[in-house]
Amino acid sequence: MALDLSHMHLRQPPTSIWQLPQLRTLDLAGNRLKVLPDSIAQSLQLEYLDLSGNELTALPDSIGQLTRLRVLNLSGNRLTALPRSIGQLACLEHLDLAGNRLTVLPDSIGQLARLQQLILHHNRLTALPQSLRKLSALTQLYLHGNDQLGLPLELLGPRWYQVLNPRMTTLPAKPSEILHYYFYVGLPIN
After folding, report:
1. Rg of the Cα trace of the chain?
2. In this structure, which of 67, 113, 120, 181 has its CB flanked by the most CB atoms within 10 Å?
3. Which residues of 161-185 are buried (b: 16+ CB within 10 A; e: fewer)?
4. Can you tell me the mean pLDDT for 173-190?
């Protein structure tokens, strides 16, 4: 079951949506959500959750109970931190955190063994946790716009919008190359 409540100017999601037992896809993008209730944990079958373009400043710890979640889009919010429980999202393959206010990532992010895409561009990251090196399934890592990391643009390769261009001929550096450079050139780590 899919539910699209995007761009409806919602300030809070209807409480009844968390009680839909067959809900697999939920799109709440482009609303005015500032907080998510702890009752989000009742949506145990949820596989796709789009919360992009809202006004979220934090996530509840209960988000870690969405263990079937494969795609989580939190881009374009006001997040300054992630809960440690994010590492409990064992099935997560795609995590989009672009355009937030994150300065650090929790160490628990290294527990996301199935994570393939980690989109972190345009945040305020000052360091990366060493646990990122554990993400062996990671094929795409976007860090542009995090100037405090001190990573050269040549290493990061094309920007996200360039990758979406079908005529793009070069791909960004592999995540392993970026992380190897970052962790072995003596830059700060968490």
Report:
1. 17
2. 120
3. eeeeeeeeeeebbebeebbeebeee
4. 74
